[in-house]
């Protein structure tokens, strides 16, 4: 055999050993045996000699443990320490918040698909379903978003009372404190349904149930604090808000300048130890009406009254809003959506130490508390809101496209509109899948911080895209605000979801991969901990096996990326067959590619990764799309793999795969080392991208699902508020879409008669009468068509207002 062939054999055997993750001794033996065979088989000495030297060096490196530790691992450890990014305490606490779940599988390079399908989704409990069918349904019927926005500029008093009386503010508070003790699934279902009716109502319910003081108290409060406040919060006697952001501290919330100083002061007629503080906060949701403020500030103890350090770190206080010195009541106007939001300030406010959440034990733990609750909450509220809105678009804008005609056809029949409808349907399917999978994890007690950051970013971004698409389909009817317009309000509100709970640019650029690389990577966190070990021998002892395992993992992923790339995923062993199995294979390929690219990038960029936000963002995009795609497969399985949903499944998967490929392309095109970027691209995509995205035929099938009633459409939009009331814009669409097929048949008959010249083209009603008289339509058809046309006229009508209603009182 020629030298080239022997070299190829050696490469093949080596890469298969790496692919199979052989342990070091069998791997060394296999490589040695192959080299022996090559030498005996005629490999020329000038090639055999360096290869044998390489084999001996590798064998020694892998097996002479003491030597390796002293001469290799120690040097790598030194280098590693220099590369470690400097982390502030707040960054470290944010990094360590929550735990790791399915994202670790995605980082492994070989996700266990059986484990994923074993996550068994549960239906809502009886009391949760009853709450949705009863109080939530009734509240939705009561909500008039136009009036809330343009007449009351607030929820009407009766709605506030309903929220209190029916327990909307205590969804998660345990029953022993008067709350409902609902699961996260139920909480999300409530917010999603409310969002499909009124965003103002949804946000008002969202805040007390997510980052409001109740959640902080539930997890970190003293027993006395829980006993006192949780029942008051559950009943709505206290309305909470959470105040972290100020003019100086926005995204960099850890830099908050609000300082509290430990001192003695008067409280309830006694001198007690407490905190005197001044603060300036803004953008605080429910701030103008809150009676209880969860206030984040930095605590100092200059006189060491607590003993110990002067700087005590970020701390959270439960501050009754009527405490002397606290100022509130003014309102911001967030994009014309009148949920309560405003600034808060305090001057020389005195608060006893017992008001600190967790009492003295809570001092300096504020950041950890916040991030721990955030790593749960950001996976629930905004994803529920965004998904609710996407479902409204899929159902009602889909119906609008089915009944609104131009050029003699429903606009949904035009390819251009179908492309947009397909995006609405496909994104909605992905969003709801990710929402459900994440809720499953949270209800199982997981707190996957990276996953919830993915949800926050990608569901709000896809929500924004869906709304933009829906606005394009609605066109003028989405732009003219008024009670008939159900989409324009969502267009206005979406930037709020993008900005809060970690603004999106920052979440994508810094958090998803930045946190994922440390938390979800199988070795990095342990390596960092070993590197920070002060005892040098212990550090080396801990670091050495991690280094070996990490090396094997890196080589394994390189080999897997290549072989899976060459076979387009077909070599991956997966549990399912058919389209689901093929997608599992392609995701296994992308997972190996991601793990390889992540490792190489960390190696190349090192501690600079924090600054190289665009590289981090693109790796985060791949990880995120892997998560969303996993959720899509999981959802399809949990719903019994309905055949009707296949177009949605395929559109959603092709879209995720194409986005991954684009993120990889952009990463490699901007790689700090261009040659390495090219090499990685060749290794990962030897046969091209895993998908070019959904094709036109698939897009048409998805669009068709939105244009007529059907089970797939019902499953896609499940959980939003629906009405068949002809006085409501969405009710009219529900009624019209049910008749669209039969009305279409009659309309075609009528057009045929008009075309043949049997009828004169006159006003609608006259044409119908003529058609009946001429026998072109039967009496029943005429009545049905007349009703349908009247309904459609109402659907396409937009609001107009008297000119003088636009005048503003210049004194207010
Ligand atoms: C309607 C509304 C309700 C709110 N409710 C509350 C509340 O109840 N309680 C509360 O405490 N706060 C609340 N906030 C505040 C919200 O959390 C902040 O607006 C958010 O943290 C962003 O801060 P900022 O607006 O000052 O933007 P900035 O911090 O000025 O950021 C501006 C832009 O720069 C980006 N950016 C900043 N740093 C980086 C970086 N290192 N890398 C990449 N991009 C970066 C951000 O992503 C953003 O796009 C609310 C805000 C709004 C608009």
Give me a quick take on this structure.
Helix content is 61%, strand content 8%. The chain is α+β, with helices and mostly antiparallel strands and 812 residues long.
How are the SSEs ordered, and which strands pair?
Blueprint: H1 3-19, H2 24-40, H3 45-63, H4 65-83, H5 89-96, H6 102-108, H7 113-117, H8 126-142, H9 145-152, H10 157-165, H11 184-195, H12 199-209, H13 213-220, H14 223-235, E1 240-243, E2 259-267, E3 270-285, E4 292-300, E5 311-320, E6 326-327, E7 341-352, H15 366-377, H16 381-403, E8 405-406, E9 409-410, H17 415-443, H18 449-474, H19 476-479, H20 488-499, H21 504-519, H22 524-531, H23 536-566, H24 578-605, H25 613-638, H26 646-669, H27 674-684, H28 696-707, H29 711-716, H30 729-755, H31 764-773, H32 779-796
Parallel strand pairs: 1-4, 2-4
Antiparallel strand pairs: 2-3, 3-7, 4-5, 6-7, 8-9
Helix pairs in contact: 1-2, 1-23, 2-3, 3-4, 4-23, 5-15, 8-11, 11-12, 11-16, 15-18, 16-17, 16-18, 16-30, 17-18, 17-25, 17-26, 17-28, 18-20, 18-21, 21-25, 22-23, 23-24, 24-25, 24-26, 25-26, 26-27, 26-28, 30-32, 31-32
The chain binds flavin-adenine dinucleotide.
Radius of gyration of CA atoms, rounded to a whole number: 31 Å
SSE class: alpha+beta
Taking pLDDT < 50 over at least 5 consecutive residues as the criterion, the unreliable ranges are: none
**Approximately how much helix is present in the residues?**
55-70%
Largest sheet: 7 strands, mixed
Tally of individual helices: 32
Sum up the overall morphology in one term: flat
The counted number of beta strands is 9
Q: How confident is the prediction overall: mean pLDDT? A: 94
Please report which band the strand proportion falls in: under 5%, 5-15%, 15-25%, 25-35%, 35-45% or over 45%: 5-15%
Measure the end-to-end span.
92 Å
- Give the names of the bound compounds: flavin-adenine dinucleotide
